[in-house]
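Reading a protein record of the kind used here takes little practice once its layout is understood. The reader may check this reading against the record printed directly beneath this paragraph.
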Amino acid sequence: MEPIADFRIDIPEAALEDLRDRLRRTRWPAASPEPGWSPGVPVPYLQQLADHWLHRYDWRAHETALNAFPQGLTEIDGQRVHFLHVRSPEPDALPLVITHGWPGSVVEFTRILGPLTDPRAHGGDPADAFHVVAPSLPGFAFSTPLSAPAWDHARIAAAWLVLMDRLGYDRFGAHGGDTGSKVSPAIGRLAPDRVVGVHINGGLELPAAGDADLAALTPAERARLDGVRDLVRDGTGYADLQSTKPQTLAYALNDSPVGQLAWIADKFKDWTDPAADLPEDAVDVDQLLTNVTLYWLTGTGATSAHQYRAVRDEPVPERSEVPTGVAVFPNDPAVRPLLERRHRIVHWSEFDRGGHFAAMEAPDLLVQDLRDCFRPLRDRAGAR
């Protein structure tokens, strides 16, 4: 068995000064002749966000906050894997592995770790406690260097099973959004005897043209599906590039912090709560910048993009019989009749606030939904 090493984030001051210097020397492009966000991130908006990053954002404070969570490193299938491992003070807590996506990181989860692991201290029922494991995906943050090009959802799921083994967890739950909404069910497919339940926020299943089941969809489900089609038409250029030419993109993301900032801020505008005018109206601006700074300081704008290339030809997965819960936030593309083709759904919730980055936007709703989803499944966990 590979050893697990303790880990603390300790970014050299020289790297932070280099970031500040690059921000000061940004060569700004001309503004688009088309107003608004449709052609991309507006120059005045990004200038204000970059100014905050340079003059008011304090990485060291957020580095300290991240280091308050126990972290580890291990090697699985030739890949270095970084993870947060926060054990509950409750002895009967249910182990839970949670998986982020792109353009996120474990920074997404910092506001849900306390309530999940110690509900007693956050006004909840201690019977709902979890031991939480939050790995960084291969090629993201400190799960680098990227060891191979083929880290698809199934391979990541297999690695997370090994990680849970090494941490001593035989039976556990799995949760995720974005990439995590694919990885978490894949863990259940690989080890249905070990996974007591799966919970995802969002989830996407596209119908084929002429699909007979579409006639049975409700008006709300049809509207959600229309939103998915609009997204595919107007909002997936980033995925086309990352799934075909991630190395070409690497030079811009690795050399320009403002380029990295724009690449991520664009998705926070598109995917957060539609009631929010700007990304920072949906998420805390410093949490957003901590996420971006982590990408910048680890040089993983490009290696994270390779994950899209790894999954572009992935086969359609078999149906999972593991009990599955789905939380649907505004802008999420989940349509229950379509998702039921691939999952045995036992819990379904729809919310009127939040968005794609649920752990950042509506941590209270996500925490409660995880508690509600797993409460009837805990007896399946057996001895831990």
